[in-house]
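Researcher: Here's the sequence for the chain we discussed earlier.
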Amino acid sequence: MTNSEYQYFFHAGTLQTAYEYLGCHYDRKTKRAIFRVWAPHADSVSVIGDFNFWDKTANYMFRITESGIYEGIIDNVEEFQAYKYFIRGRNGHTVEKADPYGFMHETQGSTASKVISLDNFLWNDDEWLARRKNNEPYSQPINVYECNIASWRKYPDGNFYDYRKFADEIVDYLKYMNYTHLELMGIAEHPFDGSWGYQVTGYFAPTSRYGRPEDFAYLVNKCHDNGIAVILDWVPGHFPKDEHGLYNFDGEPCYEPEHPLRSEHKEWGTMCFDYGRNEVKSFLVSNAMMWFDKYHVDGLRVDAVASMLYLDYGRNEWLPNAHGGRENTDAVDFFRLLNTAVFDHFPGILMVAEESTAWPMVTKPADWGGLGFNFKWNMGWMNDTLSYIKSDPFFRQYKHNMMTFSMEYAFSENYVLPISHDEVVYGKGSLINKMPGDHDLKFAGVRNYLTYMYGHPGKKLLFMGNELGQWAEWDWKKEIDWVLTEYPQHKGLQTFIKELNRIYKETPALYEIENSWDGFEWLVDDDSSANVLAFERRDKAGNRILIVINYAPTDWKGYRLPVNPGKYTRLLRTSYYGWDQVPVKIKSEPIANRKKTDSLIMDIESMSGYMFYCPAPKPKKTRKNSATKTTGKAETPKTTKTTKATKTTKRTKTVKK
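Model: Thanks. This is the structure I predict for it:
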């Protein structure tokens, strides 16, 4: 693409690889750096940095487009030298800004960008990328481990791991725990640790807290080498007001809307993006594309989608759209543009919306009128089911619909069932501490809840620490409580989740059909007084998984359970102290119950869940008939004679042998 083409498409809002043109592009051989930045309201822009002793007048840039792209070329620049743009606005305001397209930035109180080339890493994941291109994720197992690098593990002195150390440790752990995907919080550069990476100032740079860009590439590459996909949390919904960031970039709004009722998320203290501005669309779409292109990631979980879709989100005063409504039509168009672009270039990847409302067709294609994502977090399922399990078992009978209502809309979108970091902070309590009752009942409650979650249609996501039965809420300043694995019940819960992941990955009935009732059937959804649920999952071959869960701290002896006819082998039985996988075989009886012709008797233990496997019935063998083959007619007395004679002949031959 020529320079003029880059410029034209950038200003038209259709440039999908702006990172190839804007920012700092460094030639390691010649030590020449080309800087380009968009500052439409600037009177002048200069590059300041280590290479010119931060002299504001040493390297002025030239305005090369009427709409505000500036360019400067500087020789004798060393890699990893720091730089910024010194901008004088048309209103006389001056400011020093980090590079919006910078590939690396300083941290720990320093705010400059770094001169760097992105060709420092040799990838070896070609086979992975080739398989991913043909991947159809909807009928594949996806169980995601959500993780914060800084607080997953730390060294004894309290320092967190770098990208490479984290990669070596997390890959072994995810393989041991049978996870398929790793989701990373807060990778793009951000100034404040306490934002967890959700207030971004360097959208095109993996945070240098944990190392250089090639170190982050090592992490992704190692995951791919071990069969693990990588998802990043991506934040196009807002950005912070830090002076070196995007806020009032050239002294006036550039990346944010000009109107005060559109520009700010006051409850978060952050600024919104102007999704109707062409250069902003090029910036954001190109940023998403960069993570797939330069770092080979396998998916983006798009944060706070609802805040982008609604003009009144978190606002007492708001400005309606051109039609008088609350919908942000610019954001809708942006999502369609974004998802169309990434799927055109990177088929097989994941674009997951964290969308907390009932906005329709989030995961339907853009050309159908949808937003174009391929998955959406099921926040309704999460809120309802957590409300149920937090209730005293006696009162659960009055909330029974909270465990069944999600099936009323389960096939309207492609869902991920999330138990994320948001559910174990800010006084919400850890997953195990949401459970009522004594110590044993809490562990039993977690196992029951996760058995239900893994049986329910939808891909799975669990935040780190939940697998250990961590009592405390997540604290970003500390590592998760690995010491708990020294205690039998906590180690038992970890092993239970490991085995649950294995069963999920190896059992197509639990993931293959998630878009229709062909893959799901309620068997018991109305026994609220007993707190019992039972349902069946099916795969395309007709194999079935029967799931039975008792949320009451009471045994139910001789429970008559309606089932489809078949022979059932128990895969999983939860208990107070772990799991039980002793194979137990049960055959259904032809005794009608709850609209089913067959049923079976179970002793359902208190606060326990079960999974049974039932294979698809084998097709009945039909005896081929030579006379029928020859004549094509129905069986006749003559044909019967021939068949008998053939049988006799075969018997005679056997005797002779």
